[in-house]
Amino acid sequence: MRRLIPIFGFVFTVLTLYACDFRPLQLITDEEHTFEGVEEIIVRGGALEVSYVGDEGAKSVSASAYLESSQPNAEGISFRRKGNRLEVFLPGNDSPLSFWTGRTKGHVHLTGPKTIRLDLEASSGVVEVTNVSGEELKFDVSSGKMLLQDLDCTTLKISCSSGKLEAVRVAGNVEMRVSSGMGILREVAGDVYFKGSSGSVQIKEVAGLVSGAMTSGKATVERVQELGDLSISSGYLRVEDGGIGKDTHLSVSSGLMKVRASQSLSEFNYDFSVGSGYLTIGKESGSKDLQINNQAEHTIKGSVQSGKLELLGR
Question: Quick one: DSSP state of residue 24?
Answer without folding.
Answer: P
